[in-house]
Every structure is written in C-alpha cells, then in structure tokens.
Design the sequence.
C-alpha cells in the first residue's frame, strides 16, 4: 500500500528518472520497467483548483487496471492528460519508453495506439454493425478509405474476428441504432479495437447496463487485456471486484491507495473517503 504521492516503486535511479526528461538513460530505464504508461508528478489546475495533484501512476504492458475514486477525484482529467485533451501544468506522461505524450497532439496520440472510449456510445446509428466496424478501420497511410474500392480479405477477417470477440456476430447486419445500450457499448469497443490500440482507456463501461450485460462486459475486458493494456474507470464496485487484478484509488487528484481489491478495501483511508465505512 502506498501513501499518496509516493511512487508505486521507487528504485534508486528514481530522482534521476523524474528530473532527467528524455535522456537515453531515462528511456532505457523506462524500457527496462516493461511499462506501457508512465504518469509522473502530473498536476492540472483549473483556476487554482488542482484536479490532479502530483499524480504518479504506472501501467504495465498487458495489464488490466481498474481506477476507482469518488466523483471529482480526477479520473477523467487523468484520461484527458493521457489522450492530449488537457495539458498539465507540470509533470511527465510517457507512452512506452519513447513517446512523450505531452509533446503530441490528440490525433498523434490516437495514431500512436491509445484508444479512448467515452461513457456515451458514439456509434453510427443508421448504419449496420458491420459497416460501423469497417468505418472504424485504420486507413492505409495517405489513402482515404472511400477510395479503397473493396474491403481486402484480411480486413474482412479482422472485422469478423472483432464481431465474435465483442459478441455481436449475430447482429452484424442490424442497424447500430437498434442495438441495446450494452450492445452499443460493445460495438464502440469493437470500433476502437479496429484501430489496434496498444492501450485502451475505458470510462465507466457498465453504467446503465443490465446485470447480464455487465457480466459479459467483465469477460470482454478480461479477454482484451494481455494482448493490449486496458485501463478501466468504473464506479460499480461489484464489477470492479469481478475483474480487478490491481486497483488504483484516486482521491483529490492523487493516488490514495493501490493494490489488490482486497488490499484497497481494507485500507482505512480508502474506507474513509470512498467506501464510507
Ligand atoms: N474543464 C474544467 N474546468 C474546471 N474544473 C474542472 C474541469 N474539468 C474537471 N474539473 C474539476 O476537476 C475535478 C476532477 O474532475 P474529474 O477528473 O472529472 O473527476 P472524476 O472523473 O474523478 O469524477 C472536479 O472537481 C471537476 O469539477
Ligand atoms: Mg469522470
């Protein structure tokens, strides 16, 4: 269990690491750690109010991480920083060992392999499920997709694979607007997967889902991790308990606690601020 503002693990090269910027030594150190995401001492202020306060957080490659915390803890702001929507006042944010997220635009970050799913699904309602996935496909460099006359066999196979993965194989010809709320969420996850992200950020995936849809979503997210890294922000504690390996609790813009679900639930500070016990 870590105190607020204490790095997850603080190796001896820590000070050099956090102050040296992008020196080759630092990059080598990052690579050695096997992490896909490094957030270090990130502070974001809105009119003097600190939405993020010296936030330090690491995500391992292939990990499924759950982020919990009360409303206003800074969870969405953290995702805004990772995706380039919000620039921090200070701190560092790296994607793997090489890519400085704070120097990249939102499209560059998406192109580099970070996909974000917002709470509200944004599928093309009037188009079939299959077409939604087709449109989400990453276009070959410099080629506008509509100029590609026919879908290659490889691309078609990829869409079929994603349809099965997100559980919409039977709904492939259905208008996306006719899907249930849960199915729309899965379709949007499928659309993100078409872009082959290495890191998926998912904000409150099970809000408004039925119990069955929630269980199916848990299975899906567990299946997605490993091949890629997945960060899930979620309020539904039952859901988090069912998928969580490592949980990070945010509070007032910093990490309050991190560990297994059992560990964070037993943490008195967590109980006080979040679980209300
Ligand atoms: N654009 C903004 N302008 C002013 N305050 C903001 C803005 N975005 C977020 N905040 C504030 O920052 C804090 C953290 O918000 P947020 O990251 O959305 O928390 P969470 O997602 O954990 O509920 C909240 O107090 C919120 O009101
Ligand atoms: Mg939020």
Sequence:
């Amino acid at each position: 269990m870590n105190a607020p503002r204490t790095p997850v693990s603080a190796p001896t090269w820590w000070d050099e690491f956090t102050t040296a910027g992008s020196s080759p030594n630092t990059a080598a150190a990052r690579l050695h750690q096997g992490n896909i995401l490094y957030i270090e001492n990130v502070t974001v202020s809105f009119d003097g109010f600190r939405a993020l306060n010296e936030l330090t957080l690491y995500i391992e490659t292939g990990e499924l991480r759950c982020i919990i915390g009360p409303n206003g803890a800074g969870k969405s702001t953290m995702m805004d920083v990772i995706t380039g929507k919000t620039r921090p006042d200070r701190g560092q944010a790296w994607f793997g060992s090489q890519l400085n997220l704070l120097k990249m635009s939102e499209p560059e970050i998406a192109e580099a392999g970070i996909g974000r799913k917002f709470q509200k699904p944004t599928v093309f309602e009037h188009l079939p499920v299959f077409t939604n996935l087709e449109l989400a496909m990453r276009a070959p460099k410099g080629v506008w997709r509509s100029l590609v006359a026919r879908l290659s066999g490889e691309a078609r196979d990829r869409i079929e694979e994603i349809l099965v993965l997100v559980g919409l194989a039977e709904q492939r010809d259905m208008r996306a607007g006719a899907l249930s709320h849960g199915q729309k969420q899965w379709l949007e996850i499928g659309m993100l997967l078409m872009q082959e992200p290495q890191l998926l950020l998912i904000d409150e995936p099970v809000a408004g889902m039925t119990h069955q849809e929630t269980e199916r979503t848990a299975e899906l997210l567990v299946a997605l991790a490993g091949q890629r890294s997945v960060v899930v922000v979620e309020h539904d504690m039952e859901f988090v308990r069912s998928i969580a390996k490592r949980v990070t609790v945010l509070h007032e813009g910093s990490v309050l606690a991190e560990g297994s679900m059992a560990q964070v639930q037993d943490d008195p500070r967590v109980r006080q601020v979040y679980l209300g016990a």
About this structure: Residues 1-25 have pLDDT under 50 and may be disordered.
